[in-house]
Write a structure and sequence with these properties.
With about 140 residues, the chain is mainly β. It has two domains: about 1-30, no CATH class; about 35-135, Jelly Rolls. The chain contains no helices and ten strands. Strand 1 (about 10) and strand 2 form a beta hairpin. The protein starts with 9 loop residues before the first strand and ends with a strand.
């Protein structure tokens, strides 16, 4: 017998599937997913050579998974805001809140503690545009 991933749920008195994450048709509710889906965060040298544009993860997430592209050697950090277009503040303090010096080309995870609006920063300006892949993850 083949095994397939299944969503586990109960049924109501009319035998309709019921779960916080599943509707009456048995379809998974996207807002209940544990990841945001991949989004891009780009450093555009002509705009700001060490800070990406704003990324709205869509909901509040505990962790931020980041695929770091090739970089001019620098540290990578996260900035957060309470609302879209709001004032962004570095998450954490000093080099402990950033990656080690890197030239990129790997993936990492930041504990962002429930923020929704994020930007990525580098400690040194980049010589060309850099595009990161980011994804919010629930813990």
């Amino acid at each position: 017998m083949d095994e397939f991933p299944r969503v586990i749920y109960g049924h109501d008195s009319l035998d309709a599937p019921r779960c916080v994450a599943v509707d009456a048709s048995g379809v998974l509710d996207v807002s209940a997913t544990r990841v945001s889906g991949w989004k891009t965060a780009t450093i555009t040298v002509s705009g700001d050579d060490d800070l990406t544009g704003e990324v709205d993860l869509g909901e509040h997430y505990r962790y931020l998974a980041v695929v770091v592209p090739a970089l001019d050697e620098s540290r990578v950090g996260v900035q957060v805001a309470t609302e879209a277009g709001g004032a962004f503040t570095p998450l954490g303090s000093g080099t402990n809140a950033q990656t080690a010096l890197t030239t990129g080309g790997y993936a990492t995870v930041f504990d962002i503690g429930g923020w929704r609006f994020v930007k990525l920063s580098t400690s040194a300006g980049q010589s060309v545009d850099r595009t990161f892949q980011v994804q919010g993850v629930r813990g």
